[in-house]
Specification:
This protein has helices at about 15-20, 60-75, 110-120, 130-135, 140-150, 230-240, 265-275, 310-320, 375-390, 410-415, 485-490, 510-525, and strands spanning about 45-50, 80-85, 95-100, 125-130, 150-155, 160-165, 170, 180-185, 190-200, 205-210, 215, 250-260, 280-285, 290, 305, 325-330, 355-360, 365-370, 400, 420-425, 425-430, 445-450, 455, 460-465, 500-505, 525-530. By secondary structure, the protein is an alpha/beta fold. It folds into 2 domains: about 25-240, Class I glutamine amidotransferase (GATase) domain (Rossmann fold, 3-Layer(aba) Sandwich), CATH 3.40.50; about 250-425 and about 465-534, Alpha-Beta Barrel (TIM Barrel), CATH 3.20.20. The protein has a 9-stranded mixed sheet, covered by helices on one side. It is globular.
């Protein structure tokens, strides 16, 4: 049924978005320009080769890491991914740069790959395992050190919780006990410690080294990654390999989240006024149908509200557009069916395109696609949402955001038929590169923060969201996230030479925290831009 707009308690709305942070992937040295390839005009198309491991009980990790690297490389141009076992002689020379992610200890290495890496002058980024095979192909550690100024030694398993890069300290989870490569010898006259790992006692050793065309990372940067994590370093290192002439600039984005027919029109107008006065372009994610099928917030009585039946909300959305806002589509109902998914089945709280539940330890657990999942089903929901937007007299959105950042590969495929651009974080699954994604295969999936615009493995342009959101209270084992936390993450992301500080904000939190975040990000030197120009 339809009914008058009722406003749910602020503490109950949009809460699951905080717990998506747990699904994310799992410093002060200057770069020595003399050891980098000479800056070149980006006239030829940029082509990146990403190679990954597949053997052993954890062979599936290689594909997930390759997806993460390929997504970031998608910022620069086209990307080819393949198992390192499938390497063909000459592949390195046919690409602008090559990334190899060594995730399996002693993965068999094709001799052609090792030979090409040693002989090429094109940039190669090598992470973690099997660097000893490259040293062996060079004639042993001594010969390798003669050429590169360093040689791999043993993995240092100190509880490193910090990595320093370009004057910035990044975090590292001490749950990651796989270790970081150490080096004997290491000649600073011929090799550069691009970033340094800091042990608990304050001593340091290289986290990433570079000499000639080879950049080596002592671990896979995507393991146990988070918002403030050293994975950001990898995002910036790609510029050295793929676009070394890129000038420095720092841009910012803000998105107002979970705007539905139950929104407070006056609050939307006041936030739009503030952002307009601050010369801050903004986006706002809209779902056009509000549903509470179990009466969770309506005294047990089911409730449905369409945007077309709430003229005051529609008027406020038009006002937001007039103040520099850009509407994006955030699903049809932002919930699924008449079941808890994972909360009370209410719009804004629950998933729409994926199933989930809360376990006994208060963690949100992914259960997989909805039963009726298909490209046609997802297209149907998208088309229904667009029809509702049109019926309300609002312009057609050109950007899509999945509710709670979760969907199946088929759903992403469906979105790509209707939109060229998404604005969200994304889930990527084991088996995806081979065309056979396995959604809940022992939780073998990965989420990712992008510090710049990418074209991901789903083939869609993705706008970055890398600061998360203001959240004053803990939820699902995630701590509160306050304005100072968001600004601190933005400060770390200044290390990315052409990166973004992008966050989202729920209007029901009022103006106070938003002012703190916007002013803090501006003070760091970021310029807020219109997402539509990207």
């Amino acid at each position: 049924m339809t009914g008058a707009v009722q406003h749910r308690p602020a503490e109950a709305r949009g809460r699951w978005r905080r717990s998506i942070r747990a699904a994310a992937m799992v410093v002060g040295l200057s770069l020595s320009v003399g050891l980098l390839p000479a800056a070149r005009a980006q006239t030829a198309p940029v082509r990146t080769l990403v190679l990954y491991d597949t053997t052993g009980p954890y062979g599936w990790l290689g594909e997930l890491y390759a997806i993460a690297a390929a997504n970031l490389a998608g910022h620069f141009g086209t990307v080819t991914t393949k198992p390192v076992a499938a390497y063909v002689a000459g592949d390195v020379g046919a690409h602008t740069a090559t990334i190899y992610l060594g995730s399996t200890y002693d993965e068999p290495m094709p001799a052609a790959f090792l030979t090409d890496v040693l002989q090429t002058s094109k940039p190669v980024i090598w992470a973690f395992d099997n660097i000893w095979h490259l040293a062996g192909a060079a004639g042993g550690s001594a010969a390798f050190a003669t050429t590169f100024g360093w040689a791999p030694h043993v993995f240092d398993t100190s509880a490193v919780a910090r990595v320093d890069y370009k004057g910035t300290s990044f975090t590292r989870s001490t749950l990651n006990a796989a270790g970081i490569m150490s080096y004997v010898p290491f000649d600073p006259a011929r090799a550069v410690a691009v970033a340094e790992a800091v042990r608990p006692d304050g001593s340091r050793f290289p986290w990433a080294v570079r000499s000639k065309h080879l950049t080596y990372l002592g671990e896979v940067p995507f393991a146990y990654a988070g918002l403030d994590d050293r994975s950001v370093i990898f995002s910036d290192l790609l510029f050295d390999a793929l676009a070394p002439g890129t000038p420095t600039r720092h841009r910012a984005l803000v998105r107002l989240e979970d705007v539905g027919p139950d929104a407070d029109p006056q609050r939307l107008r006041s936030i739009a006024d503030y952002l307009s006065n601050q010369r801050v372009p903004f986006t706002f994610g809209v779902y056009p149908i509000y549903k509470d099928p179990l009466g969770t917030y309506n005294n047990g009585t089911p409730e449905t509200i369409r945007l077309v039946d709430t003229p005051q909300v529609v008027s406020a959305l038009k006002y937001m557009i007039s103040k520099g806002g850009r509407m994006i589509l955030h699903g049809l109902t932002h919930q699924y069916s008449d079941v808890a998914n994972p909360y009370g089945g209410v719009s804004g709280d629950d998933f729409e395109f994926f199933r989930a539940h809360i376990d006994a330890d208060n963690y949100v657990v992914f259960d997989g696609p909805v039963p009726e999942d298909s490209v046609a089903w997802a297209q149907g929901r998208i088309d229904a949402a667009l029809a509702e937007i049109a019926a309300a007299g609002l312009p057609k959105p050109t950007i899509f955001e999945f509710p709670h950042y979760a969907a199946s590969a088929l759903d992403y495929q469906a979105v790509a038929t209707r939109f060229t651009t998404r604005y969200d974080r994304t889930l990527y699954f084991t088996g995806q590169l081979s065309g056979n994604p396995r959604y809940v295969d022992n939780n073998r999936l990965i989420g990712q923060f992008f510090p710049y615009v990418v074209r991901d493995v789903y083939g869609t342009k993705v706008l970055p969201e890398n600061l998360a959101n203001y959240e004053p209270t803990p939820e699902n084992n995630n701590p509160p996230r306050l304005p100072a936390d968001i600004v601190a993450t933005a400060k770390r992301n200044l290390a990315v030479r052409d990166g973004f500080a992008s966050f989202f904000y729920h209007p029901y939190n009022g103006l106070g925290p938003l002012r703190e975040i916007v002013s803090g990000i501006k003070a760091l030197g970021y310029t807020f831009v219109d997402a539509g120009t990207l």
